[in-house]
């Protein structure tokens, strides 16, 4: 399989992405993980303002470029605008670029379809932090401006349902290149993948292992008896099976590990080949959304009164 996918904006996105979300990790830990990842061959890095990892990711990448280990053009960097900056994505991205020490990034995503008050730059909004109107149209105009100004080479979204993508496409001058969503063998996103395929929007899979070890994550995927048995059959590991499943659907996978051994293990997924039987069995697994986004739902101030509103029933 090609290790890159051509996006609708003309950029090539490496299929294997390196996640950098970790509230516990010190920036030195993140920096050394990024150095290790580049050495190992990773070329696609995922961060977000709200992760607090932009500085460390940017520093490690800039050092690698300075030391001529990689060229800037070889690295694909994604960051995301948080809800509190929906009123001005251009200023938010300029701040992200300062955080990272970069002149441009490759991909800028709307992190969640949720507009917050300007002060709410923390992961869990309070009741008083929600803007009543979503106003995605004006947020998207700001995103388009970011691309026009050359602050990013491409724009996209994250955590958007089929319905939200449909309405975005009605007014977008630049269509989103990517929708980054939770996707793994137990949350397969069939409907969304079909819609995105028809509209040339690439689906990028976050939490491709189900986020084991995260406060909100689960070991359900890598502990699944089926995933374990497929791994055994191929002399592989459950994580490699989960990652290769996502890759086999044409998605890029964004997996996080700051551990050298597990980073190597994960990269090994590129060499695994699942057979038709494996894929058929995985299709039968009971589905379970792990990142549900409950924090963004309330029956008073949020535009999403119940969880089904946030995902437009796709949950
Ligand atoms: N757009 C969004 O809203 C959104 C939401 C969530 C995540 N993301 C992005 O996607 C990335 C990945 O998601 P995630 O971190 O939630 O989930 P994940 O990659 O599925 O899981 C990460 C967890 O699994 C552990 N792990 C990694 N490789 C492993 C292996 N081979 N065997 C067993 N455990 C392993 C990691 O610990 P160690 O580090 O100790 O190995 C970490 O605790 C994030 O870092 C972020 O960049 C985006």
From TrEMBL:
GO biological process, one term: alkaloid biosynthetic process
Domain NADP-dependent oxidoreductase: 17-286
Alphabetically ordered keywords of this record: NADP
First and last residue of the signal peptide: none
InterPro entries: AKR (IPR020471), Aldo/ket_reductase_CS (IPR018170), NAD(P)_OxRdtase_dom_sf (IPR036812), NADP_OxRdtase_dom (IPR023210)
Positions with a binding annotation for substrate: 111
Keyword NADP on entry: yes
Feature type site, description Lowers pKa of active site Tyr: 80
Gene Ontology terms, MF aspect: oxidoreductase activity
Domain of life: Eukaryota
Presence of keyword tRNA processing: no
Pfam family of the protein (one): Aldo_ket_red
Annotated catalytic residues: 51 (proton donor)
Similarity annotation: Belongs to the aldo/keto reductase family.
Name of the protein in question: NADPH-dependent aldo-keto reductase, chloroplastic
Source organism per UniProt: Cucurbita maxima
Gene that this polypeptide is encoded by: LOC111483489
């Amino acid at each position: 399989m090609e290790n890159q996918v051509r996006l609708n904006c003309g950029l090539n996105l490496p299929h294997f992405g390196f996640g950098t979300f970790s509230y516990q990790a010190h920036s030195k830990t993140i920096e050394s993980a990024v150095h290790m990842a580049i050495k190992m061959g990773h070329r696609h890095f995922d961060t977000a303002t709200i992760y607090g990892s932009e500085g460390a990711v940017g520093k490690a990448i800039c050092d690698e470029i300075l030391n001529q280990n990689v060229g800037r053009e070889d690295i694909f960097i994604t960051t995301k605008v948080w809800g509190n900056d929906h009123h001005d994505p251009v200023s938010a991205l300029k701040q992200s670029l300062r955080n990272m020490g970069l002149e441009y990034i490759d991909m800028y995503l709307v992190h969640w379809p949720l507009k917050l008050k300007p002060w709410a730059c923390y992961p869990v909004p309070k009741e008083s932090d929600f803007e009543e109107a979503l106003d995605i149209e004006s947020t998207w105009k700001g995103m388009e401006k970011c691309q026009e100004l050359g602050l990013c080479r491409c724009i996209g979204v994250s955590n958007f349902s089929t319905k939200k993508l449909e309405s975005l496409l009605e007014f977008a001058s630049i269509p989103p290149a990517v929708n980054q969503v939770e996707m793994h063998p137990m949350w397969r996103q069939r409907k969304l993948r079909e819609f995105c395929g028809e509209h040339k929007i690439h689906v990028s899979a976050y939490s491709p292992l189900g986020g084991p070890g995260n406060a909100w994550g689960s070991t359900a995927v890598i502990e699944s008896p089926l995933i374990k048995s497929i791994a055994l059959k191929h002399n592989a590991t459950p994580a490699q099976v989960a990652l290769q499943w996502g890759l086999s659907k044409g998605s890029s996978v964004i997996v996080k590990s700051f551990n050298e051994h597990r980073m190597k293990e994960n990269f090994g997924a590129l060499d695994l080949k699942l057979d038709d039987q494996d894929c058929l069995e995985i299709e039968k697994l009971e589905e379970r959304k792990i990142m549900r986004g409950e924090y963004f739902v309330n029956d008073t101030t949020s535009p999403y009164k119940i969880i089904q509103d946030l995902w437009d029933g796709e949950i």
